[in-house]
Amino acid sequence: MQPTIFDNYELKVSAFDYAFIGYSVSSASNQVAQIIRKDGKNLFNEQVNISNMKIHNFNIGLPVPFMIFSKPISEIMKFNFNPDKINFMYLYAGYQKHDIDNLNNKGFWIFNIMTQLILPKDIKLTANYSYLTPKAGYFYFTAEKPFNNSLDITLTKKFMDNRLTVSVFANDIFNGQVMQVRSNPPSGEAVYMRNKYDTRNFGLSINYKIPTKNKLAKEDPNILNSTKKEDNGGVMQQGQ
Predict the structure, then answer these.
(1) What integer pLDDT is reported at residue 240 of this predicted model?
(2) Tag placement on the chain: N or C end, fewer CB within 10 Å?
(3) Residue 108 in contact with residue 138, Cβ under 8 Å?
(4) Which long-range contacts (CB under 8 A, 24 or more apart) does 130-134 make?
């Protein structure tokens, strides 16, 4: 039982609260990871300690308000707008690579596009598409298919001075979520694993905010802050 120790280094530049570009590296000692291997007819699922490894992260986020096609940049820069009231697209890209001794891991890219459109009657349409590139290494596994490949769409309308919110949503419209990986054990034979279930779902959500005079009650964050991506997040849980 040895502790996992991380040495983290990060460089990040932000602009206008929402645009950013950054790079970070985590150097880990005694990182716990899962290894699945085959030896003859026997299948082994083990937890091991990686003596030294590095995780490299690069990410960039950029909001694109659609008003740039109708207004000059100088006017947009002076405009103090509410992101919940405008049409825009938010672009995010991230790259992650796991460096482990004696293992040739390829890095993977994470792409995310979120679009908000204000329709007539103040109906808000939000579309979110996420994609992770395949054939990349995550600890001792290689993704044969993307870990994430989904499109979500939501229509939202607020009533009663924004206290009542009604939403109609469709998640993973193309039912593209699947986990299909090949293990990369230091010894023994590789194992192919596939897990697929129906992740497509449709629904109706109704939320009512009870009025309060409590001045400490928090306001709802705007959608751009809620969906802003600033890290690469884990794809599979390791060392659990």
Answers:
(1) 40
(2) N
(3) yes
(4) 132/108, 132/235, 133/108, 133/109, 134/108
Q: Do 206 and 158 contact (CB within 8 A), yes or no?
A: no
Tens-digit pLDDT profile for residues 105-150: 999 999 999 999 999 999 999 999 999 999 999 999 999 998 889 9
Handedness of CA 177, 145, 40, 99 (dihedral sign): negative
Q: Which long-range contacts (CB under 8 A, 24 or more apart) does 113-121 make?
A: 113/89, 114/89, 114/90, 114/227, 115/88, 115/89, 115/90, 116/83, 116/86, 116/87, 116/88, 116/89, 116/223, 117/87, 118/85, 118/86, 118/87, 119/155, 121/157
The single-letter code of the amino acid at 74 is S
Q: DSSP H helical segments within 10-88, as ranges? A: 73-78
How many other CB atoms are found less than 10 A from the CB of residue 159?
11
Give kind and range of the element (H or E) at residue 225.
helix 223-227
Pairwise CA distance, residues 84 & 89, whole Å = 12
**Rounded CA gap, 182 and 143, in Å?**
7
Residue with tokens 């002076």: 78
pLDDT at 1: 60
Q: How far, in Å, CA of 155 to CA of 152, rounded?
A: 10
Q: Find tokens 């950029």 and name the residue.
A: 62
